[in-house]
Amino acid sequence: MISLTTQPIQVEPMLKRLESRHGGAICLFLGTVREFTRDKRTLALEYEAYSEMAERKLAELEHQARARWPILGVEIAHRVGRLEGGEVSVAVAVSTPHRAESFEACRWLIDTLKEVVPIWKKEEWSDGSHEWIHPAPPTETRA
Amino acid sequence: MIAAVVPAAGKSERMGRPKLLIEIAGEPLLARVVTALASGGACPVIVVAPPRSQPEGPPIIALAERLGAIVVAPDDRPADMRASIQLGLDALRATATPQAVILTPADAPGISQLLIELLIEEWRARPDRIVIPTFEGRRGHPVVLPWSIVSTLESLPHNLGLNALIAAASASVHTIEVADRTILLDLDVPADLEFWDAPTAAPGMVVHCVRLFASARELAGTSELEVALAPGGTVADLRRAIAHREPRLRLLAETALIAVDEEYHSDDAVPQPGARIALIPPVSGGETNP
Predict the structure, then answer these.
(1) Architecture field, domain B2-184
(2) Is residue B247 within 8 angstroms of chain A, CB to CB?
(3) Tell me, what DSSP letter sits at residue A25?
(4) Domain that residue A48 falls in
(5) By CA distance, what is A36's nearest residue in B?
(6) What are the sequence ranges of the domains in chain B?
(7) How far apart are CA B111 and CA B41, in angstroms?
(8) Which chain B residues contact residue A140 at CB under 8 A?
(9) Which residues are within 8 A (CB) of B254 and not within 5 positions of it... i.e. 6 or more apart?
(10) Which residue among B112, B262, B284 places its CB closest to the CB of A134?
(11) Does residue A137 fall inside a structural domain?
């Protein structure tokens, strides 16, 4: 199941849905809001999604993962809105017959999610500044 | 501290209506200019407004105050732009003297946060210089002037303007070439609006609504932008149309991904009428980001 939610992510129901008598492994990844990045402190994060496209891209990722690994079940949940330090921002869980493929599939899903799913993260730093976190545009084309 | 002075007390005689309240891409011209200055790092932003007794005075004053600018509203309309600038400088001197002042005509719709950031960065590297943006070698606006230079404006003969001040200090001028011809534009006569008007009036054009997210939405100050393309127009044409319609998005319009009907598309794709189009700034990314 794939979901975007403004509510705290509930991991238990996700794992419950992955229970399978053919399964031998469930790999669960949780992304959390990091409070300290080097010397900077994050007060809160705001996630903004292009919901229709994000859900569609997440479903595509699930299909692609199922084509590569012997997957029994996939659960992906992503928070949107304002989150505070320590909160879970994203959960990816994969159930497979053996542990190696659950690790691989889970890792691929979260890495690819971060690259292609239109969800943006805005940092609210403790010094009062705000910043959309994404790769800086090339400086030679500035202005 | 780097302040900005926006002379906004003019009569708009050639435009025939108060031009600073004309909406460009859905935002009054004065709001675009003040927002770009403030978000680009100028503080305070001084707006020299028309007298309250003039019909356009109160709405311009209210708008500038709502945007967080310090408003100077003289009892009599200043004689010219130089007089307006002088009132703004006097207001600065009365509070806290800045290290430099950004001067821009209030009718400069091409001013963006990125441009202001760039100019401030250039000036900080050489704080005794006047910094002027150029496009293909032609000088545009805004201009950053060190306080030591701009504060001598009042000692110039009264028939001379800001250009004379800059000419007198020509050895101090540092120009920075930018890839943006909008720095040369201002709005004086109704025909000047054509560049900024949505080309929706042209018959046969296909109007697309482009959704904006995250940094794009904040830069543009809106979550949707209407652009018009000729039939058969491609994603590459769409990029140009977005940059043209909202100059603050020109950098993202060049570099960001474009989604058509919730799929990423290359520059040669042709969006169909009614397609769902979105500008997708780089997403939050992974471990490689700071």
Answers:
(1) Alpha-Beta Complex (3.90)
(2) no
(3) E
(4) 2-125
(5) B290
(6) 2-184, 198-280
(7) 13
(8) none
(9) A141, B239, B243
(10) B284
(11) no
pTM for this entry: 0.56
- The per-residue pLDDT for A41 is 87
Is A138 a domain residue?
Answer: no
Q: What is the CATH number of the domain that holds A34?
A: 3.90.1170.40
Instruction: Determine phi and psi for B107, rounding to 5 degrees.
Output: -105, 45
Name A34's Cβ contacts closer than 8 Å, sequence gap at least 6: A42, A85
Amino acid letter for position B172? S
State the fold for domain B198-280.
Answer: Ubiquitin-like (UB roll) (3.10.20)
Q: Confirm or reject contact between B262 and chain A (CB < 8 A).
A: yes
* pLDDT for residue B199: 45
Question: Is B184 part of the contact surface with chain A (CB cutoff 8 Å)?
Answer: no
Residue B60 contacts A where some CB pair is shorter than 8 Å? no
Q: Does residue A130 sit within a domain? A: no
Band the pLDDT of B189: cuts 50, 70, 90: low
Angstrom CA distances, B272 to B105, B238, B275, stand at 40, 12, 5
Residue B164: helix, strand or coil by DSSP? helix
Best of B284, B288, B289 to substitute, by most chain A Cβ atoms within 10 angstroms, is: B284
| Count of structural domains within chain A | 1
